[in-house]
Write a structure and sequence with these properties.
- By secondary structure, the protein is α/β, with parallel strands linked by helices.
- The protein is 45% helix and 17% strand.
- The protein has helices at 42-47, 72-85, 98-109, 128-142, 146-157, 160-165, 167-176, 182-197, 225-234, 250-253, 255-274; strands spanning 3-6, 9-17, 24-28, 51-55, 91-96, 114-120, 212-217, 238-243.
- Strands 1-2-4-3-5-6-7-8 form an eight-stranded mixed β-sheet, sandwiched between helices.
- Helix 2 (72-85) crosses helix 3 (98-109), helix 4 (128-142) packs antiparallel against helix 5 (146-157) and helix 4 (128-142) packs antiparallel against helix 8 (182-197).
- It is globular and about 50 Å long.
- The N and C termini lie far apart (38 Å).
- The mean pLDDT is 96.
Length: 275
Amino acid sequence: MAMMNINGNELFYEVFGDSEASKTVMFFNGVMTTTSSWALYYPLFEKLGYRIVLHDFKGQMKSAKPDGPYTFREHAEDAKVLLDRLGIQKVHLVGTSYGGAVALRFAIDYPEIAVSLTLIDVASELGETTRLFLEGWKQLAIGPQGEAFFWGAVPSLYCNSFVEKNKEFLAERAKLMNDIGEDYFNGQVHLYDTYINDSDVTDELCKVKCPTLVVVGENDLLTPRRFSDILVRHIPDTEYLIIPECGHVTIFEQPGSLLTAMAGFVLKNSERMRS
C-alpha cells in the first residue's frame, strides 16, 4: 500500500499506466468513496497511454484522519504536493461531488497545471437541502454506522430507477459497511463539516482557465441541476452534459455514458495541448 507523508499526514495514493507518460489524469473521490471507485474508468486511460494518479483525501478510507474540519484549499494543496513529488507538471482533473469541489479548487489555485477539468455532480455553493442531507449523514456517521449508515444515505444519492434495478448490488455494498472501522466514520464527519463550511466558490469560478466539462445526473437530489447551471454560466470555457435517469452517483449509475464523454473530452484537450 503506497503512502506518502504530505503536510504532516499519511495519504494513500496509487499510480497506474506509464510512469513516464507525458499525459496524466488525476481522479478525485466522492466523499464516501475511495480510489477503487474509479476502477471502471482508469483502465481505458491506461490503454490510451495516460498515467493515472488517485489518492484518498485526508479523512478518507486509507489515509490519515486528523481532526477537522479541513478546507478544500488544503485538499488541493495536498494533491499539488503529491503531483510535485511524482514529477508531474500538467494534469487533467476529474472529480465527482466532494472530489469535484477539490478539483475545482485546484484549477482555481493552480491554473498553470490544470489542462482540463471534468466536474461530475458538483456545486460551487451549498443549498439548504444539500446542507440538510449532510447534517443527516453526520448523525448517521456518529450513530448507527454500518448498514444503517449506508441505507440512510442511499435515498439522497441514487436515482429511483437505479435502486429498483440494482437492489443486489446495493445490498452487497451495504454489507461491506459492517466491516468498516469507526475511524472511517470519524473521518466522514470531518469531511461533511468541510463540505458544509467551505463550499462557496461561485465568485471565483471566473478564475478557472482550462476547458471544463460539467456533468450532472438529471435526477440528482444532493446537487440538483441548478448548481451545474451556475458552473456553466460562470466558468469561461465549458461543455455541459445532463444524463437522464441518473441521480448523484453518476460514476456508478451511468458509467458508460460518463466514460464516453470523459474520455472524449480529455483526449480532445490533450490534442489541443500539443497543437
